Structure formats: structure tokens, C-alpha cells
Amino acid sequence: EQIMKIRRQNCNPVTMKITYYKKPLFIHQGYMQWLWDVDGRRYLDLFAGVATVSVGHCHPKLTAAAVKQLKRLWHTTNIYVHPTLHEYCEKLASHLPDPLKVIYLTNSGSEANDLAMLMARLHTGNFDIISFRGSYHGGTQQTMGLTSNSPYKYPISTSSGCTHIMCPDVFRGVWGGSHCRDSPVQTIRECSCAQGHCMANEKYIGQLKEAFSTSLPSRIAAFFGEPIQGMGGAVQYPKNFFKDTYKLVRERGGICIADEVQTGFGRTGTHFWGFQGYDVIPDVVTMAKGIGNGFPIGAVVTTPEIAASFAKAYHFNTFGGSPIACAVASSVLDIIKEDGLQQNSLNVGTYLLKELAKLRDKYEIIGDVRGKGLQIGVEMVKDKASREPLSPEAMSEIFEDIKDMGVLIGKGGVYGQTFRIQPPMCITNEDVDFFLAVFNKAIHNYME
Ligand code: PMP
Q: Does the keyword Transferase apply (predicted)?
């Protein structure tokens, strides 16, 4: 009660609004994929503080690396040379394909995207930036405009020069009921390709080209795209869609920016970066969240050419690339490798997707199961025929029930209709079995 009183009186009132559960959860401790509340109840954490705790809560090796650095040096700013920063930049660069080799360290994903927007405008001399409907790119004034799936409701314009282009809704059809209500809704589930997404690809691309020629500015500074939408609800694009968007943007003088804040660091399982699943090489990659397992750090990685344009301007960041952040992030890279976490994402994620698909076939209210590795979305509907999103009240009832049975998951989607599973990448098949039993029971309880 006392803590809630302080929260009401002294904390940012917006955080009150986004408190996840009806009765707030007081989290006290964490270890790997587990969290404990103040009463000692244990929860399986399948949301990882919004897809952030990549290697596990308080991973012993990471804690040791952080403590070692805490005893040696906390802060200098980058006006001095400290080896931790340079060692880390070299290590991170080795995880990216050529020519993505120049690194700017920030403190968050929003800051990274904000910086990338500026970089694109300076490099191309163009102003307009495009992103997909349903996307989330951050909460600074600039990135709020870039964000489409926006929780930011301000009576003033927060950013200019950003346009949200259609994102195909592969569940509801072409441009999808949820994204563009007045366009034709087609069925895409009949698709016979392995991905289940490509049948309408030609149509998507055709409409994308049309949008480019009719409504978008003739010169573009950049396109931002999450390889799999996070807050949008694990939205994946049809085959070639990302690649064709890159091509259209580059034809207009723009650069292509992959927002890997949620998809990076092995989470998708098949690749270290989400963009690698689409056979493209972006001009800029932005990252945060999993990079530091919860320690504040973000990064922008770009090419020497774009970095040269940007060098004409000035950029300074007091905390970006702090010794502690770099030591932690460096250890995160080591742990991903040593603990085989990318492979584990693929193995456990594939198992979870397969088992969830069985539940989708069993229950009328599970409309779609999608994602890759350990970035998974379960889209809930009123019924399979209408594909109408399940109501927020019903979502909430199931969500609370899952928590009461000891599992924490996330929510997303344009209507909050998608459950999100983006756990620490160290979870096991046994954890998945536990979650599936809980999820099954929660849906059963709701349907009764
Ligand atoms: N990009 C994506 C894809 C995100 O999911 C988020 C955060 N949810 C951001 C950028 C912004 O990151 P941050 O909250 O660290 O500023």
C-alpha cells in the first residue's frame, strides 16, 4: 500500500496507466528465466521486461563482468579513450556483415532511432522518412512520429516528415482489416508455401509500388522497418516484401534502416539479426534491449560512407558507451555464444510454435500463431470466421489467469489482440510445456 501511495504521488502518472495487471505485480528478484514477487511467488518470465533480458536475469557470468567493471571504472565520457569501449565496438562489428562497421553507442532504442533519423537526413539531404503501419520505434519527439502503433496521444504534432506506409496483414489478408479497413480483405491461409505467407505477395508488392507512385514524396531520406514487428504483435512480412521495399526506397534516394531493437542478438534463432532472414543488407542497423540484457545501452551501426557524411555534423553523448555498459554488452555477446542461445532460440521457439499451432487448431479463439525463434505472437479472435479481435476485457481475463498460474507474457497488436512471447533466450522445452499447460487451462477457463 505504501509503495502504491508513493507511486501515485511521486511517479510519472503515465506509468500508472501502463501497469500491466489489475493488481500490480511487485517484482523483487530474478534468476535466469524466473522472477519472484515480494511474497516469494515464482513466475516463469516469458516477456523478459519487454524482450530485453536476452541471456537471463542476473546471469552469473554477466553479473561477474558487471561487478568487475564497477570496481575498475564507471564513467569517463568518450572525450577520453577507454579500452572497454573500443574492445566492445570491435566485437560488435564482427557480428555484422560488411560494410556495417561504424558504431555509435547510445542509451536506448529511441535514442538510437532518433540518431539514425538525423543521420539519414544529413546523408541523403532528403527529409521524408517512412515506416510501416503497426510499427514502434521509440518515444523521443522524432521517433514518436516514426512510430505508428502509438501509445502517445498528444493534441499537438510531435514530429514532421514521417509517413506510415501500409503493412500487409498476413492473417487478415492483403492490407488487412486491422491496418486498412476499407481495402479488400482476402484469405491468405490457403497459401501452400512453407512460410504460409507468400500467396498474395505479388499483390502486396503491386500495391506497395502503387502507394509509392501515388502518395509518397519523390525523395525519401529513409525507411525504418522492424524485421518482425514487436509491439505490432509479431507481424512478419510476406516473402520479398522487405527486399522490395528496400529497392523502392533506394530508387528514391533513401537509405534503409533495420530496427533490430527486438529482433537482434539471436532472438529469431535462424540468424543473429532479423534482417538476415529477408536477404537484405541495411544501410543502418539500430539496436537496444537485448544488447545489454537490461542494462541501458543502444547502438547505431552504419557504413563508413554514411558515417563520413555524419562526421560533418556534431554528435556527443555523455553516457553512450559507458565503461559499464560496454563491459556488460561485451559479456552478453560472449554468453550468447558460450550458452548457445541463438540455437536455443531456434530449438525451443520451433517447439513452442509447433505446440501452439495445435492449440490454434483446437480453440476457436486462437486465430493465428506466428513468429520466429523466441519472438512469437498468438493472435486472439472472437471466432475464426470473422477474425475479429478478441475484446480487451476477454484478453485481460485470460492474461490475468495466466499470471495467477505463474507465467508472465506480453500483449501487443493494433487492438491489443495478440499475446506476445519473447522470453530470455535460455528457456527450455520443459518451461514451454509448463506454459502450454497454463495457457490451455486459461483458455479453457475463459471458454467455460
Ligand atoms: N524500437 C523497437 C522495435 C522497440 O520495440 C522499442 C521499445 N519497445 C524501441 C525501438 C524503443 O526503445 P527504448 O524503449 O529503449 O527507447
A: yes
Q: What is the pLDDT of residue 190?
A: 33
Q: What is the ipTM of this complex?
A: 0.99
Q: Give the C-alpha separation, 372 to 197, whole Å.
A: 13
Integer Cα distance of 174 and 144 in angstroms: 26
Low-confidence ranges of the chain (pLDDT < 50): 176-199
Q: What single string gives the DSSP state of each residue in 72-109?
A: H-----TTS--HHHHHHHHHHHTTS-TT--EEEEESSH
Domains held by the chain: number: 2
- Would the CB of 231 count as within 6 Å of ligand 1? yes
Task: Measure CA 435 to chain center.
Answer: 21
Predicted TM-score (pTM) of the model is 0.93
Residue 199: the pLDDT is: 41
Q: How far is the centre of ligand 1, averaged over its atoms, from the C-alpha of 110 (Å)? A: 6
Which DSSP helix (H) or strand (E) runs through 337?
helix 323-338
Tell me what pLDDT residue 196 has.
38
Assess whether the C-beta atom of 50 lies below 6 angstroms from ligand 1: yes
218 and 132 share a domain?
yes
Quote the CA–CA distance of 347 and 269 in Å, as a whole number: 8
User: Are residues 351 and 359 in contact, defined by beta-carbon separation less than 8 angstroms?
Assistant: no
| Contact (Cβ atoms closer than 8 angstroms) between residue 269 and residue 345 | yes
The verdict on 250 and 378 lying in the same domain is no
Query: In this predicted structure, what is the pLDDT of residue 371?
Result: 93
User: Is the separation of the CB atoms in 299 and 103 below 8 Å?
Assistant: yes
- Same domain, yes or no, for 83 and 199? yes
Asked if residues 14 and 388 have their Cβ atoms less than 8 Å apart, the reply is no
Ligand 1 contact via 262 beta carbon (within 6 Å): yes
Q: Residue 298 CA: which ligand 1 atom is closest?
A: 15
pLDDT tens figures, 104-126: 999 999 999 999 999 999 999 99
Rounded to whole angstroms, what are the CA distances from 359 to 46, 177, 355, 363, 437?
A: 18, 24, 7, 6, 11
Task: Copy the grid coordinates of residue 5.
Answer: 501511495
* Whether the Cβ atoms of residue 369 and residue 356 lie closer than 8 Å to each other: yes
Q: Quick check: CB of 412 below 6 Å from ligand 1?
A: no
Question: What pLDDT score does 232 carry?
Answer: 92
**Residue at a domain's end among 295, 311, 338:** 338
Q: In terms of residue numbers, what domain contains 21?
A: 2-55+340-447
Same structural domain for residues 21 and 112?
Answer: no
Distance CA 225, CA 245 (A): 10
Instruction: Say if ligand 1 is within 6 A of residue 188 CB.
Output: no
Atom of ligand 1 at shortest distance to CA of 110? Answer: 16
